[in-house]
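chain below, 177 aa
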Amino acid sequence: MIKWTLDELRRNCTEPLALNETVDISSLIKSKNENVISVSPAKVNGFFSLDQLGLLGTFKIKIKLVLPSTRSLRPVNTELSFTVSEYYVDHQTDNLAEFGKNDVVIFLADGLLDLSEVVCENVLARLPLKVLTPEEAVGKTELPKGNGWQVVEEGSSANTKVQVDPRLAKLKDFFKD
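prediction:
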């Protein structure tokens, strides 16, 4: 685990602190999202630098995960690669007017920056909502269906003929002009 205090960084970092780390966040991710099947160590490349606003972290995260398919629950290999740019400030900071409206500002409890937590939270925020196996993605598998129901893709031209309950059929003419 890689941790720094803001005070320590203010005293010792006159130049940007380069990051080229591999961070194992498997247990942390699984404790926060039980649907994640497995997680590889994350590769983190970038830097932290101090400026008048606080500690600016700019880095790229690459990680491989195995997630369940949102359709069949079969395991799917998923690769994430994204850039993070965030300011880290002490939890006692109360003047946020200096930050731009698009700046991400993270308050640090006890002034402690934990790289594992930072990476974990950013990975969790970027988990895809729709995860499909390669076969499901190209439509080679049949969509689930059952007695009186079926799954249809949004925007598909599936046969959506509405069947009216026979007990309510007489009501269809109730509001005719």
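The CA atoms of residues 103 and 168 lie 55 Å apart. The chain has four helices and ten strands.
thats it, cya
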